[in-house]
Amino acid sequence: MRILAAMSGGVDSAVAAARLVDAGHDVVGVHLALSRNPELFRSGSRGCCSIADANDARRAADVLGIPFYVWDFSERFAEDVVVDFVAEYAAGRTPNPCLRCNEKIKFAAVLERGVALGFDRVATGHYARLERSDGAVSLYRAAEPAKDQSYVLGVLTGEQLSRCEFPLGEVTAKAALRAEAAERGLLVADKPDSHDICFIPTGDTAGFLDDRLGQRTGDIVDVDGEVLGAHQGYHRYTVGQRHGLHLSVPASDGRPRYVVGLDPVANTVTVGPRQALAVRTISAIRPTWTEAPVHGSWRGLVQVRAHAEAVPADFTARADRLEIELEAPMFGVSPGQAAVHYDGERVVGAATIAATGA
Amino acid sequence: MAAIASGARAYVDHAASSPMSAAVMAVMAEAMALAGNPSALHASGRQARRMVEEARESLAADVGAHPSEVIFTSGGTEANNLALLGAAAPDQKVVISAIEHPSVADVRRVREQVAVAGVDAFGRLRSAEFADLVDGAALASVMWVNNETGVVQDVAAVAARAHAAGAIAHSDAVQALGHVPVDFAASGLDLLSLSAHKLGGPVGVGALIVRRGVALRASGFGGGQEAKLRSGTVPVALVAGFAAAARAAIARRESEAARLEALRRQVAALGGVIPGAIDNSAEAHSPAIINLTFAGIRADDVLLLLDAAGIDASTGSACTAGVHQPSEVLLAMGRSREDAGASLRFSFGATTTSADIDRLVAVLPHAVETARRAAAT
After folding, report:
1. Any chain A CB within 8 A of the CB of B3?
2. What is the pLDDT of residues A81-133, one digit of tens each?
3. How near does any CA of chain A get to the CA of B127, in Å?
4. B319 is catalytic
5. With a cut of 50, which residues of chain B have pLDDT below it?
6. What is the mean pLDDT of residues A273-300?
7. CATH number of A278-357
8. Residue A214 Ramachandran class (φ > 0 left, ψ -120 to 50 alpha, else beta)
C-alpha cells in the first residue's frame, strides 16, 4: 500500500513509519507545520511544532530512506483548533485540542489531501489498535493501558478509521520502543515525550488565554452565592480543580473546596465541597461513531478525560444527543471534554459533554 | 515508493544545481592530489598557485574579462553580497530590481537606502521607473537571467543608464553564464556575479568580476587573498573545476542553447494541453528555464507526485521550514498569491535528455489534475 506517515519529529511516529517500511509498504513521511510562527527550537520537552522537530522528522525519514515533505496546515490549525480552543474556554468549558486536531486536521484535512494524492492510508504513532474484517474496522485500546491513546481517537468515524494505520498498538513498553528506535539508528530514540499543548510551547495555558481573552477579574462564590474571593479570569479554572484558588476564608466544614462551576455571563467561579462535584448523569452532544451508529439504550463504559478511568454507565441515544447515566457518581466532569465510550476494549464513539447532573 | 537510482531519475532542476561531468571531476581530482597553499612561496605552493592563476585566466578569457578582474568567492551568494555591501558607502542609495535573488534582495535588511524598480507582467525591468530611481544612487543591481522564470534583462542598457546617473552597475549572472552570451567587457557592467555549480562545476565556488578601477571594500577580513577583497585560502580544486566547467559550457553554448530551447518548447506546449496553465516566460528568456502556473494547485503537491514518478523539479522560490512560499518573483510580476503558490520551475542543462522531457510531458498533466483534486479537499 501507499502510506502517508505523519511524522511529528518524535520517537513514536518515527518507529511507526519504520515498521511500515519493514512491512514492505511504499511510505512517504510528512511533517505537519501547525504553528504560524514556529520557534526554532523546542523549549524543554514541549511541543511538536518547532523547526527543530521538523528537522528531527526529516532526519528520521533520511534514515528510513523514504521521501519526506512538510505540509503547512498552520492556517487550518489556527482556524479549526486554536480559535475553537479559545472560544471553548471563553464559554466556560474545557476543550481537548488534541481531539479536535485529530478530528479536523490529522484525520480530516491531511487524510483527505493524502487520499486525493493517491495514498491508501495515513499512519501515526498513536497507541491504539485497529482490527479489520470484511471491510469493517474496529478501534481498540492499545495493548499497554498506560500508553493507550484511543481516547483522543474516539472522535474518528468508521470512514476515517478505514484509512488509518496505527503500527504501535501492540507496543507494551516504551523502553522497548526506544530500544527499537536506537537499533534502527533513529536519532530521536531518547527524545523526551511531549505532554503539553503543542501551540503553547511555554506551557502557560492561563497566560495564553489571558492574551486572547483579557484578564477579567471576578468573584469566587460558594454554592449559595456568597463571595469568598476574587479570580483572575474564569478561563483559568477547570471544574474539579482544587489547587490555586487562594481563598482566605476557610470552608465552614474545614474540608477542601473545589471548582464546581464556571459562569461566563456572571463572570463567576463557583466553589463547593467535593460532593457538589458528584455527577450521575451526563448529557453529551454531537455524537460520533467509530462504526455504525448505535440506537436505543445499552450498557457500556465511559471515559471523560484523556487519563481518566473508564466507568460503567447506561447509554441512551437520542437525536443528536447521548444521555449517559453513570453507575457510580464521578467527580470532576468538565463540560467541553469528550465522553468517549467503550464496549470493553473497543471504542464505540464519542460525544462532547454539554451538561452534567447529580 | 521503491528507491530509484539517481541515474534513472529525470532531473529537471539544473537551475538549483547542475551535475558535474566526469571531465570536471577528473580536473578536480588532479588538483586535490596536490599539496600546498597557493599563497605559500615554496615549490608546492607555487604549483598550487599556478593552477589557481590558470583557472583565473581561463575563466577571464571565457567571460570577456581581464584575469586581474576575477575575484574568486565561495559562490554566487558571496559574490552578490560582496558587490552589494562593498561597492557603495553604507549611507548611499542602491537600486535593485523587484525580482532579485535573496542574496541581492535582502540587502534591504542591512542598508537603509534601497530603491526597488518594478517589473512588468513578463518580469522585464520597467526601464522608466529604473531610470527615475537610479538618479542619485551609487549602485544599481539587476540580474541578467532570473532564476525562477528565466527572463533575460537588457543589462547593457541598465549599465549605460546607471553610468549616466553616476552609479556603478552590478548584475547577478549566476543563471546567465553558459546559457546566454556573457561578455563582461562588452556589457559595460562594473561588477558581475558568477557561480560554478549552475553550469556543471562544483558547489562552493563562484566569482565576482570587478572592473579595473572600480573601488570595492572587502566585507570580511583575514589574509588578504584575492586582491585583498576576499580573504581565505583559495580552494585550488574548486576554482580549477569551476574554470573547466565554464570552459566546457561556454564552448558548446550555442548548440546547447538550440537543443535546450527545443526541449523547452515541448514543455511550453503543455500550456496548451493542461487547462488553466499559464506560461510565465518572456520573449527574451534563457533556454534552460521555464516557469508554468497551474491555477488551483499547491505546487508542493505536484512536486510530491513528480518526485514519486522519478522527476526532480522545484518551484525555484524560497522555502520556509520546508514549505514553499508564494514566489516573490511572480508576485512582483503582478500574479495573485494563489497563482504565485501554484507555479513550478523546470530547468535544464547538459545532462538533460529528450527522454527526461518526454517523461515530464507524459506525467505532468495527470499530476496537475490529481493535485487540483487534492487542493479542493
Report:
1. yes
2. 999 999 999 999 999 999 999 999 999 999 999 999 999 999 999 999 999 99
3. 38
4. yes
5. 1-6
6. 95
7. 2.40.30.10
8. left
Intervals of CATH 3.40.50.620 along chain A:
2-190
CB A270 within 8 A of CB A222: yes
pTM of the model: 0.91
Partner-chain contact B305 A58, CB within 8 Å? no
pLDDT at residue A68 is higher than 70: yes
Q: Predicted confidence band at A43 (pLDDT cuts at 50, 70, 90)? A: very low
Nearest to B305 among A33, A112, A117 (CB): A117
pLDDT at A47 over 50: no
User: What is the tens place of the pLDDT at every residue in B59-79?
Assistant: 999 999 999 999 999 999 999
As a dihedral over the C-alpha atoms of residue A144, residue A146, residue A147, residue A149, rounded to 10 degrees, the angle is 100
Residues on A contacting B at a C-beta cutoff of 8 Å: 2, 26, 28, 31, 33, 38, 51, 54, 58, 65-67, 69-72, 109, 112-113, 115-118
pLDDT tens digits, A165-208: 999 999 999 999 999 999 999 989 988 887 778 888 788 898 99
CATH class assigned to A215-276:
mainly beta
Sort strands A311-318 and A227-231 into parallel, antiparallel or unpaired.
unpaired
Give the three-state DSSP class for A180: helix
Listing DSSP states for B35-103 in one string gives -S-TT--SHHHHHHHHHHHHHHHHHHHHHT--GGGEEEESSHHHHHHHHHHHSS-TTSEEEEETT--HH
Burial of A283 (0-12, 13-18, 19+ CB in 10 A): middle
Residues of chain A with CATH 2.30.30.280: 215-276
> Which residues of A are marked as active site?
101, 198
Pick the residue of A72, A80, A110, A119 with the most B CBs within 10 A to test the interface with B by mutation.
A72
Q: How near does any CA of chain B get to the CA of A71, in Å?
A: 7
Q: Please state at what angle helix B236-251 crosses helix B253-268, rounded to 10 degrees.
A: 70
| pLDDT reported for residue A37 | 67
- Name every chain B residue with its beta carbon within 8 A of the beta carbon of A66: 1
For each of the domains in chain B, give its residue range(s) and CATH number, in order of start: 8-19+253-375 (3.90.1150.10), 22-251 (3.40.640.10)
Residue A162 or residue B35, greater confidence: A162
Nearest to A51 among B300, B321, B370 (CB): B321
> What's the rounded mean pLDDT across residues A155-159?
96
Q: How many CB pairs under 8 A join A and B?
A: 49
Contact in structure between B318 and B341 (CB atoms under 8 Å): no
Residue B242 near residue B203 (C-beta atoms within 8 A): no
CA A219, distance to chain mean position in Å, is 30
Q: What per-residue confidence (pLDDT) applies to B219?
A: 87
Buried b (16+ CB within 10 A) or exposed e, B166-198: ebbbbbbbbbbbbbbebebeebbbbbbbbbbbb
ipTM for the assembly:
0.89
Instruction: Read off the pLDDT band of A49 (50, 70, 90).
Output: low
CATH class for the region spanning A2-190: alpha beta
